[in-house]
């Protein structure tokens, strides 16, 4: 099965992804922001929010998963079984997320 097919099946909860499958997706630049679920508060050592790929059972640095940052100190793989980290959308963290803010195009501030 191709990496792209695995990602598609994981988006709908049909397939669980292991660390090797996620690494393969990262190498092929197939992970997009819509594939990530961000933590409500937890952050990596680099400052980026922790996230997990839909269908995976572990947290990792969102900057590493999305390919935005590879160097520097980062948290390793944090399995769900060992860490209780609330995700965005959890009832225990309503409205909280470490997802990066969306950039708006063409918005400028008037000079004062």
Task: Describe what this molecule looks like in 3D.
It is a single chain. The protein contains 3 helices and 4 strands; from the N terminus they run ααβββαβ. It has helices at residues 3-11, 19-27, 62-66, and strands spanning 36-43, 49-53, 58-61, 78-79. The protein has a 4-stranded antiparallel sheet. The longest helix has 9 residues, at 3-11. The chain is globular, with a radius of gyration of 15 Å. Mean pLDDT is 82; it is low at 108-112.
> Count the helices. How many?
3
Q: Widest sheet: strand order?
A: 1-2-3-4
Biggest beta-sheet profile: 4 strands, antiparallel
Compute the number of strand runs: 4
Approximate helicity band: 10-25%
Low-confidence stretches: 108-112
Kindly name the structural category: alpha+beta
Radius of gyration: 15 Å
Strand content: 15-25%
Q: How far apart are the termini?
A: 58 Å
On the 0 to 100 scale, the average pLDDT is 82
């Amino acid at each position: 099965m191709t990496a792209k097919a695995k990602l598609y099946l994981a988006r709908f909860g049909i397939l669980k992804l292991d660390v090797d499958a996620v690494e393969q997706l990262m190498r092929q630049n197939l992970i997009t922001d819509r594939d990530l679920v961000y933590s409500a508060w937890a952050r990596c050592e680099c400052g980026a929010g922790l996230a997990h790929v839909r269908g995976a059972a572990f947290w990792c640095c969102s900057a590493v998963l999305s390919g935005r940052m590879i160097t520097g100190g980062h948290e390793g793989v944090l399995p769900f079984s060992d860490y209780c980290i609330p995700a965005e959308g959890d009832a225990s963290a309503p409205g909280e997320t470490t997802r990066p803010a969306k950039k708006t195009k063409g918005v400028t501030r008037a000079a004062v």
